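Consider the tokenized backbone below.
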């Protein structure tokens, strides 16, 4: 039995819903479901009933919930005592991130920090990547995840963590009305854009340039989740991360156009010259381990 399984058990009981529980422990709903099943198998009892109103604890679940909470509280006290003995990192770190914590492996980072440095506090701030970079340059953040095509940013240290595949997504009605789209036809359709400083916008401009056209401003989305919603609602085509587009396509929200693919990068940024605090160094170590 692992402590993260008990944390998941408690989160499901509190939230009454797998999706909300997953968000509260910074992981995915399938991962939460798998952790719950593994715990139920080990304990030999069913902890929840799935109902139309969500996840309802069984009699066994209610009986064990208090024990799980006490165990987690005891584990926290033990870690705190050990951290004080060995002088672990303490303090607050202002951490910027994009809107999708799962794709950025933020959950893994938080688990590592909670286990190693329970006295460390992360002050999370979500935003668009170009806004997060500006906040870093203004000194409002200590470190951040961003999506960027850039290899360097003046005044900041940038490290590429992994590639992010990008695809063109179409509203279902638009895809069904145009089953054999060429690039020229694609760029003649209505589009949903993003801000000029956004990494996704760079790829929209490049796609239109390949068709010998210039992208014209129209409907604009502030963020990937809004962009996905606008495409699904039929406003126009747009560029999404492949993982988001595939999920939306499985849900019947949109269609992926298979005639184009590109990639951007998940990146880690921090001040280039400033000496890192012990807390910031602890966060950096956890991030690089999660992406190793």
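A designed sequence for it:
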């Amino acid at each position: 039995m692992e402590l993260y399984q008990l944390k998941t058990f408690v989160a499901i009981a509190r939230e009454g819903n797998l999706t909300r529980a997953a968000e509260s422990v910074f992981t995915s709903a399938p991962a939460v479901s798998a952790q719950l099943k593994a715990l139920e198998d080990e304990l030999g009892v069913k902890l929840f009933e799935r109902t139309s109103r969500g996840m309802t604890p069984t009699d066994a679940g209610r009986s064990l919930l208090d024990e799980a909470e006490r165990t987690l509280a005891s584990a926290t006290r033990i870690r705190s005592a050990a951290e004080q003995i060995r002088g672990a990192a303490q303090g607050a770190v202002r951490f910027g991130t994009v809107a999708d914590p799962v794709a950025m492996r933020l959950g893994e980072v938080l688990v590592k920090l909670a286990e190693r440095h329970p006295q460390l506090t992360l002050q999370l701030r979500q935003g668009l990547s170009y806004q997060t970079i500006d906040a870093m340059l203004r000194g409002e953040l200590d470190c951040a995840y961003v999506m960027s095509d850039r290899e360097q940013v003046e005044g900041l240290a940038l490290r590429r963590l992994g590639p992010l595949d990008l695809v063109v997504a179409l509203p279902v009605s638009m895809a069904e009305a145009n089953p054999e789209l060429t690039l020229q036809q694609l760029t003649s359709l209505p589009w949903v854009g993003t801000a000029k400083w956004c990494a996704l916008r760079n790829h929209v401009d490049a796609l239109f340039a390949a068709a010998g056209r210039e992208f014209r401003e129209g409907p604009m989305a502030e963020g990937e989740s809004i962009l996905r919603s606008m495409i699904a609602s039929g406003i126009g085509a747009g560029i999404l991360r492949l993982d988001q587009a595939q999920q939306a396509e499985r849900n019947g929200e949109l269609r992926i156009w298979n005639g184009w693919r590109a990639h951007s990068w998940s990146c880690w940024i921090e001040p280039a010259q400033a000496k890192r605090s012990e807390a910031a160094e602890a966060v950096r170590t956890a991030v690089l381990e999660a992406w190793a």
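The longest strand covers residues 254-271.
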